[in-house]
Amino acid sequence: MDGFTPWPPEFAARYEAEGHWGRDLLGDVPGGAPGRTALVAGDTRLTYAELDLRVRRAADGLTALGLRRGDRVIVQLPNSAGFAVVFLALVRSGIVPVLALPAHRAGEIRELCALTDARGYFMSETDGDFDVRRLARSLPVDHVVVDGDAGEFTTLADVEAAGRADSVPERPEPGDVAVLLLSGGTTGSPKLIPRTHRDYVYNLRASAEVCGFGRDTVYLAALPAAHNFALACPGILGALHRGGTVVMVPTTSPAETFPLIERERVTVSALVPPAALLWARAAARTRHDLASLRLVQVGGARLAPEHAATVPRALGCALQQVFGMAEGLLNFTRPDDPPHLVEGTQGRPLSPADEICVVDPGGAPVPPGEVGELLTRGPYTLRGYYRAPEHNARAFTPDGFFRTGDLVRRLPSGHLVVEGRTKEQINRGGEKFAAAELEGHLLAHPAVRDAAVVGLPDPVLGERTCAFLVPRDGTPPPALAAIKEFLRGRGVAAFKFPDRIEAVGSFPLTGVGKVDKNGLAARLR
Ligand code: OOB
């Protein structure tokens, strides 16, 4: 596939020789006994045999539609049986899903379409006040597939029925790109992460191993399935691989998840820190029985050490901290780690083949135990973003290490503590976006002359978003509500809306003439 940077041959040979990379394909991952329950979502319950049949039919149907190995399609589906069927059918056929979040809006979807030359858009029937059909009509794709009532488009059920004897999909190769994941971003335009069959199968297999997933695992997918954490760390795919059961729900809210935990005897779930806090508070007064829970994984943003102690106590289960990224590298605290490591660190690398460097701003390694930027390379960490040569020249070292933009400290045990970041990204309770992206939108507002977006500390979200605006001469600064309306009109996902607006006369500058964002944030303290 064009725009994909493969691993250098000597690395590929090593990962194969060491047994990290095999020949397994992502679409063949479900490994449960035919009669066992694979998937529960809403009113749908599918055994492994039923799931496989639906996936097979959908894969044949996609081929009958004319979609082929290497084509890209945008998938924007909530956690549902439809997501699982569509995702597995696509990857089985070598058609590459570009995983958009349910929260994305027209602006983001259009950009993803343009970047990937997508041939299809997979969407759900309704999405609150979002006129997804209007968007779908305007996209330059050949096929719009709806999980539900199709109207002028094609339903998923039609796709599953469209297969013919001669529409058997071509099988992908293990080294092919299987899926394009969305990066949290550090620039004004979206960046996509190519994950190959062999690296992503390794990712989910090794994660499932570390987390002890097995046939008895009942995994609750409450974070968006499009997110690497819920999809493959070990997530939905790890649970299916080990023959467990996946319960899909489109929200982390205790009101919806707690009854499901009780009914399905859920054993494990993955949460971002704000959701984990919400669960811990709600558990104290719930009438639902949560005793089946054995493990809660928390990651995506920093979990404060005091919360790391209270969350597992409140939920009556073990905690695992996960410091991961869609780009690859995953760190987990291990089940047998002592409490001070589980509570006070973000875990250690998943793979013995993960290479870690902690460096100073000049790129030189810092002394052991000191804070520096984390660089990494390994069998499931990308070598380049999709179709982004200029960005790649900055995001990787000449010898192929990915500059994570995270500031970490490494303990003698190998565990990492996340201390901050160098990248200009907002991490609002685990939902990430580039400051530059929001600034770009704000600059398009007629009353805004300059904009700087900064994360401010927040006790629950970790960070909330403040937009500093320099109004144009003679115009009053727009109010927060007006800015939100403006962004909504531009088709921006709501999680990128600022929480606060501050009008200023000008921005302080750093020594090298860049906007001094620390200085701006300090003004509010
Ligand atoms: C996960 O993936 P992304 O791609 O949404 O975000 C990655 C970034 C990291 O570079 C780091 O800045 C931050 O999110 N992050 C954490 C963290 N986990 C992620 N910061 C502090 N503490 C943590 N535990 O967020 C992700 C992917 C797979 C598994 C888990 C999380």
Automatic annotation (TrEMBL):
Q: Which InterPro entries match?
A: AMP-bd_C, AMP-bd_C_sf, AMP-binding_CS, AMP-dep_synth/lig_dom, ANL_N_sf, ATP-dep_AMP-bd_enzyme
Tell me where in this chain the AMP-binding enzyme C-terminal domain is found. Answer: 437-514
Q: Does the keyword Ligase apply?
A: yes
Q: What is its EC number?
A: 6.3.2.-
A single Gene Ontology MF term assigned here is:
acid-thiol ligase activity
Provide the alphabetized UniProt keywords: Ligase
What's the top EC group for this one?
ligase
The UniProt record lists the keyword Ligase = yes
- Entries under Pfam families matching the protein: AMP-binding, AMP-binding_C
AMP-dependent synthetase/ligase domain: which residues? Answer: 33-386
Enumerate the PANTHER family for this protein: LONG-CHAIN-FATTY-ACID--COA LIGASE, NONRIBOSOMAL PEPTIDE SYNTHASE PES1 (EUROFUNG)-RELATED
Q: What is this protein called?
A: 2,3-dihydroxybenzoate-AMP ligase
Upper classification of the source organism reads: Bacteria, Bacillati, Actinomycetota, Actinomycetes, Streptosporangiales
